[in-house]
Amino acid sequence: MPHRGRAPTPTLERLAIYFAVLTDLKRRQAVTISSADVEERTGINAAQFRKDLSYFGEFGRPGIGYGVDELYSAIARILKIEQAQPVLLVGAGNLGSALMGYPALRADSFRIVAAFDNNPGKIGEQLWDLTIRDVAYLIEDNKTCRAKIAIITVPAAAAQDVAEQLVDAGIRNILNFAPVALKLPADVIVRRVDFVQELAVLSFHLPDSNSGR
Amino acid sequence: MPHRGRAPTPTLERLAIYFAVLTDLKRRQAVTISSADVEERTGINAAQFRKDLSYFGEFGRPGIGYGVDELYSAIARILKIEQAQPVLLVGAGNLGSALMGYPALRADSFRIVAAFDNNPGKIGEQLWDLTIRDVAYLIEDNKTCRAKIAIITVPAAAAQDVAEQLVDAGIRNILNFAPVALKLPADVIVRRVDFVQELAVLSFHLPDSNSGR
DNA sequence: TAGATTGTTAATCGATTAACAATC
DNA sequence: TAGATTGTTAATCGATTAACAATC
Fold first, then answer.
1. Per the domain annotation, does B21 fall within a domain?
2. Which residues of B touch A193 (CB under 8 A)?
């Protein structure tokens, strides 16, 4: 067994991209793919692709390439999405509701198995295929759900509190859509999606409007 | 004028975080802040913060720190969000609608000034404060809006086509929520938000479930 | 065999951070 | 002045990519 180092985060992010490509290729019943093909499709350097995979093993054959089905399965196993991962959602507002209806989430590798809110007007209402639950039941409900990943789509002011409740419910992996930095134990992994930050980076790259009216 | 290099993308992303912190400090009427304070609040290394700013000028005073109002204005200028930037949205589905209602987008530095869709059932409908327009009028409408940034929230299959129409309408900066890699001219800047990718990275970090229940 | 393509090494490139002279 | 904190340099760290022997 070769000693393989820890994979950097950018590698993991690209793995998800490769997985999407392979999902597509599988659907089209492609048999093999080379690292050059991947570069062609994704813009990710072929050597990068091979190096990314090398953190986890050897999946290709020199002169041939990679078996589509084989690599698909390998990446699914690496990302732990061989079976759809159950996910909790807290915050059944516009954004939470949109995420639940998001086709790529509904179909693929993740399944939102419970939705919570603290708004009495929402609790008990139907949202897609789920009934919105009182966030007070988070811990109790997750004893049966046993989800390990959660999505936070509550307003910024409520996010820290919700995050702590999630940790109490056994969640150690959080996708945070609220525009705040969560302070949580070091073993909790948080990834943040910040639309305003994304727009700000785009805005920076706008041409200077010195000249002109 | 000191020669300052191009700021790396991570620097720009952090600039947006600093701006959020300063917005908060300004509201609380704080007068000055030190790089150590920023580290305390954001987890971003104090030297990193100073280095990030150094790409754009000198904004602090040794022994004192940074004036909150001054730095807020400086970053707003750097990110070109002194006035709210107009933004186009294409795809008035669940996600697009949620983004339009997103508090941080409604209030702050960006303003969605037009929403488009190609669904005849939606065109003409009211969505928040806007009337949904036929995507066919994109080019024409943007002659008056003059937005330079657009958000794509259409299904994956439609995204490439929409992106090309946006480019034809003069847009050079795109925030893409569709899970596809857009192929566009090199001068068009695309940032992609991929929920499934984010979840995949979290899923990877789950503890191995070798040992059974 | 000749051609193609892998996995890995080594070189390059870029980003982060510690350290400190300058200075308020 | 003494203490605090900046801006910048230089060292460190980490990620990307070119090159190539191995091999199908």
1. yes
2. 193, 195, 198
Show which of B78, B95, B129 is a domain's final residue.
Answer: B78
In a domain, A44, yes or no: yes
Residue B134 has φ and ψ, to the nearest 5°, of -70, 130
Nucleotides of D under 7 A from a protein CB: 3-9, 14-19, 21-24
User: Of B78, B104, B127, which residue constitutes the final position of a domain?
Assistant: B78
- Chosen for mutation from B77, B88, B146, B203 (greatest number of chain A CBs closer than 10 Å) is B203
Q: Would you say residue B212 has pLDDT above 90?
A: no
- Mutant choice from A44, A199, A209 vs B, greatest count of B C-beta within 10 A: A199
Give A28-38 pLDDT, tens digit per residue.
Answer: 999 999 999 99
Q: Which domain holds residue A31?
A: 9-78
- At residue B124, the pLDDT reads 97
Is residue A98 domain-shared with residue A144, that is, in the same domain? yes
Whether B115 and B163 share a structural domain: yes
B191:A198 CB<8 A: yes
pLDDT of res. B213: 38
Q: Is the pLDDT at A145 greater than 50, yes or no?
A: yes
